[in-house]
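Dear H.,

Thanks for agreeing to be a second pair of eyes. The structure we're designing against is below in token form, covering all 615 positions.
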């Protein structure tokens, strides 16, 4: 039928209309009534019904001649008309059911607004044609979902912008509202289409490396609309995820699983992680705790870590530049265009006077430990980071809470920011300033590891943060915005120093684009915001393996390791390095002091009696 339709220059819509009419008709019949002798007559009748009702195509020949041509003059026209009436009566004249091809056309209506390549639409057409050869697949899912899966797979393969995929999902929910809760089903549909596609290509022999003149059967396999796109695929392979190009470069004869070539191809087809990850949202552990919350649902997050990471990679960034501190090669500081020019110049100079010229002391405790503010990022860069975080949250891919106390935000170290942004930020900005300000607490090895996250305060969510100290040697706290009122930070004393029991609070107001730098052991909290929303980028610097210093350096630097229990060690291994329920195994005793309720890592530790581990 498909070959005949191509010869007659009938569009794909007519093919799908005819197939759906036939399938609905045969599905309404008892099994014993499916007379194969009548099949050709019923097929021609379905074509006539589709031409009259389901398609706006104008046949080049009168309907009688179309029937004669398709039936090879073997089926009387009057018999076809009689069969047409039988089909209509059986379907109760309900012939307006949308096909998968109709939904594909509707879902693709906005793609041109997002610069999606035309070949994506052609490839989606082809995938839907493949589904006609597998009735189990074609009717296993709603036609709207089948069309969406084909289009999303095609968009992924052709490296279309992420916004195009988002538009498809938005439009799918308009046509099929139940799809909002069926991302897992959508992912399964996409994988079934992938498997069918892979199976057909994997069993082709002598696959040509370039398009050539094709027979009708070859055109059926490739699809009448895909031929032009294939030429572009074979001649201009624009990305490694270009599947047709991958097929062209693969061995000319292979079966699935018969060597590295097919395996690479199968890996390339491992798409739809985004939709599978979205389906996890319904089972995501609830976020409740305000202390020790980093171990909430630990097993769930560890189980799905690989899928969530694959989904974020498949989703792609909204603003790729915010994942990198340095925009180009050459001098890192010169390339760090997101840093304000005055700060870049001072860091390049690196002299004590230059570094301190950027710092403003905002408070100092009784022991002389101060907190400093400096301007670091321009407001537009802060806006781009927030837009990227909104993009990640809007994707529907679950985001893990940033730490044990804040319930809203994200762990940047797990979202692709670590190597390009966080580590250079620690090395080029935080470490030089910390070494200048607190050389006895921050030696070069005390910032060997970096952990970064964003916390969010919003009315109706978290609005404040209890007193605590960080699991770090030094902390950078950057205010990204947005607009908010109140919410001042306050600082007290520093753990393991004479000021650790200070009760006096020093208020510090935070403003967008500015950073606070302080010792990780400096006790602090955040008062409630009264309106708006504030997000803060937090960067912790620790020693190797998460070492945190508990006393200032002596002539030979000493650092003692907070050895976490096995659960938190597992968190580190899975890149979820947030520290709660921490224990010190170096025999630190609390002596005559009771731990405070407002805590660092669940327990306010005392330095009055420190018994080093036995040599």
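And this is the sequence the design step returned. I haven't edited it by hand at all.
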């Amino acid at each position: 039928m498909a070959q005949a339709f191509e010869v007659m220059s009938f569009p794909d819509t007519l093919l799908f209309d005819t197939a759906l009419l036939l399938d609905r008709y045969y599905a309404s019949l008892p099994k014993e009534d499916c007379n194969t002798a009548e099949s050709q007559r019923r097929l021609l009748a379905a074509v006539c019904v589709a031409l009259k009702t389901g398609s706006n195509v104008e046949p080049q020949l009168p309907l009688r001649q179309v029937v004669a041509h398709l039936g090879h003059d073997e089926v009387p026209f009057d018999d076809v008309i009689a069969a047409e009436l039988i089909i209509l009566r059986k379907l109760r004249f309900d012939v307006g059911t949308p096909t998968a091809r109709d939904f594909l056309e509707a879902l693709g209506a906005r793609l041109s607004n997002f610069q999606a390549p035309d070949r994506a639409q052609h490839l989606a057409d082809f995938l839907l044609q493949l589904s006609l050869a597998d009735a189990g697949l074609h009717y296993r899912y709603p036609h709207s979902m089948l069309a969406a899966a084909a289009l999303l797979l095609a968009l992924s393969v052709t490296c279309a912008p992420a916004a195009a995929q988002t538009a498809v999902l938005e439009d799918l929910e308009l046509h099929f509202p139940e799809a909002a809760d069926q991302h897992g089903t959508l992912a399964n549909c996409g994988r079934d289409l992938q498997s069918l596609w892979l199976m057909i290509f994997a069993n082709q022999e002598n696959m040509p490396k370039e398009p050539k003149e094709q027979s009708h059967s070859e055109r059926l396999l490739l699809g009448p609309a895909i031929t032009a796109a294939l030429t572009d695929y074979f001649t201009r392979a624009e990305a490694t995820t270009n599947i047709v190009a991958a097929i062209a470069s693969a061995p000319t004869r292979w079966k699935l699983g018969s060597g590295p070539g097919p395996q690479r191809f199968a890996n390339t087809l491992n798409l739809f992680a985004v939709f599978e990850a979205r389906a996890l949202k319904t089972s995501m552990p609830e976020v409740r705790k305000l202390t020790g919350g980093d171990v909430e649902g630990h097993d769930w997050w560890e189980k799905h870590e690989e899928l969530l990471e694959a989904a974020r990679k498949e989703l792609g960034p909204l603003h790729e530049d915010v994942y990198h501190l340095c925009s180009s090669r050459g001098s890192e500081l010169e390339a760090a265009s997101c840093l304000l020019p005055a700060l870049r110049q001072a860091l390049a100079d690196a002299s004590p006077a230059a570094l301190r010229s950027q710092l403003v002391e905002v408070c100092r405790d009784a022991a002389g430990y101060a907190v400093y503010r400096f301007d670091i990022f321009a407001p537009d860069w802060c806006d781009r980071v927030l837009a990227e975080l909104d993009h990640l949250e809007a994707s529907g891919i679950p985001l893990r809470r940033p730490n044990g106390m804040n319930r809203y935000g994200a762990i940047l170290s797990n979202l692709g920011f670590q190597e390009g942004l966080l580590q250079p930020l620690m090395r080029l900005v935080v470490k030089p300033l910390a070494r200048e300000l607190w050389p006895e607490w921050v030696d070069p090895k005390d910032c060997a590891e970096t952990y970064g996250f964003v916390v969010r305060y919003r009315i109706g969510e978290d609005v404040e943060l209890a007193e605590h100290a960080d699991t770090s040697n030094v902390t950078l706290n950057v205010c990204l915005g947005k607009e908010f009122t109140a919410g001042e930070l306050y600082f007290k004393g520093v753990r393991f120093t004479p000021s650790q029991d200070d009760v006096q609070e020093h208020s510090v107001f935070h403003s967008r684009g500015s950073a606070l730098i302080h010792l990780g052991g400096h006790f602090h909290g955040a008062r409630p915001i009264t309106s708006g929303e504030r997000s803060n980028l937090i960067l912790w610097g620790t020693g190797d393996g998460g070492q945190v210093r508990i006393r200032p350096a002596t002539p030979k630097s000493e650092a003692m390791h907070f050895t976490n229990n096995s659960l938190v060690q597992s968190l580190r291994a899975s890149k979820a390095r947030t520290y709660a329920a921490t224990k010190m195994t170096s025999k630190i005793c609390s002596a005559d002091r009771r731990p405070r309720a407002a805590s660092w890592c669940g327990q306010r530790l005392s330095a009055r009696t420190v018994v080093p581990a036995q040599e």
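Two observations from my side: The first helix runs from residue 2 to 7. Residues 54 and 102 are 10 Å apart (CA to CA).

Warmly,
E.
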